[in-house]
Fold:
Amino acid sequence: MSWKQTKAAPFFVGYLNKVPKPLVAFLGVFSLCFVAGLGLAAFALSTTQNDPGSGTFQWGNRFEQTGLLELRPYPVFRIPADGDTPAHTYMLAGQGKRGVFEQAEANREMPVTLRGVPVNRGDLTMIQVGQVAPAMDDAPGFTPSEPISLGRWKLTGEICDGKCYAGAMRPGRGLAHKACADLCLTGGIPPVFVSSGPVEGRNFFLLAGKDGQLLGEAIDPLLALYIEVEGEVEQLDDLMVFKADLLTARVLK
Structure:
């Protein structure tokens, strides 16, 4: 078999400082197709990713309220109802990947004025605590309501750290975030259970053990996975608490 060139092929010679016209056209078409291909690939990849959510720090909405600190079993801040505004219970976190157990223990069930920055995602709000100080002497006292049991539930969803999922990190869930969530929970930030189905219209739950105790390392094998678990749900003002029986937990995927 033989090959014979029937037409002068374009050939670039650097020292001539001139690119043949056929090569210019080829490079132009190739460049356009390459850039368009990168754009399409980026679009295709982005559409397969989970929505990172709208959570974020509310830097322009500094938090300052007077109320009580409690441990249930993680630190929460409870403020009384005011007129038509119902009572609220907020989860709390410290700076960075730290909790606020020390401040909560030192001021437990005492009237305090708490200052911080809200981290908010939908109806999940966590306060990054900046300062805790004893309340003024004339601050009105109040007795927080007891939790209301909503019965035993089997929920499916994911265990996350409450601060990142609320908006400190995006995305704040999934295997890509597992290492960060592990550090946050080890540092004392409250875990939350993000349910795929609502209970009384809420999908976010402060997570506790079945007897209301801290979970510690027991949740490590289940962290950032899609699981099914049973437990009792309690309503603490506007905050839902899920007392999970981890012995019933099952990894779904």
Summary: Helices lie at 21-47, 101-106, 162-168, 178-186.
